[in-house]
Amino acid sequence: MFRNRMPRYEILSPDAIAVLDKGWRRIVSEIGVQFAKPEATDLFRKAGQSVDGEVVKLDPEFVLDQVAKAPAEFDVQARNPARSVHIGGDQMAFGAVYGSPFVRDREVRRDASLDDFRKLAMLSQSFAELDSAGGVICEPNDAPLDSRHLDMVYALTTLTDKIFMGNVVSGPNAADTIKMTEIVFGGRDRIEATPATVSLINCNSPLRWDDRMLDAQFEYCAANQAVVLTPFLLMGAMSPVSIPAALVQQLAEALSGIALAQLIRPGCPVIFGSFLSNIDMQSGSPSFGTPESGIGLLCTGQLARHYGLPFRTGGGLTSSQTCDAQAAYESLMTMLPTFLAGTNWVMHSAGWLEGGLVSCYEKFVVDIEILRMLQVEFTPLEIDEDSLAFGAHEEVGHGGHFLGAQHTMERFRECFYRPLLSSTANYERWLKLGGKDATARAGDIVAKKLDEYEQPPLDDAIRAELDDFVARRRAELGD
Question: What topology does CATH give the domain 2-9+67-377?
Answer without folding.
Answer: TIM Barrel (3.20.20)
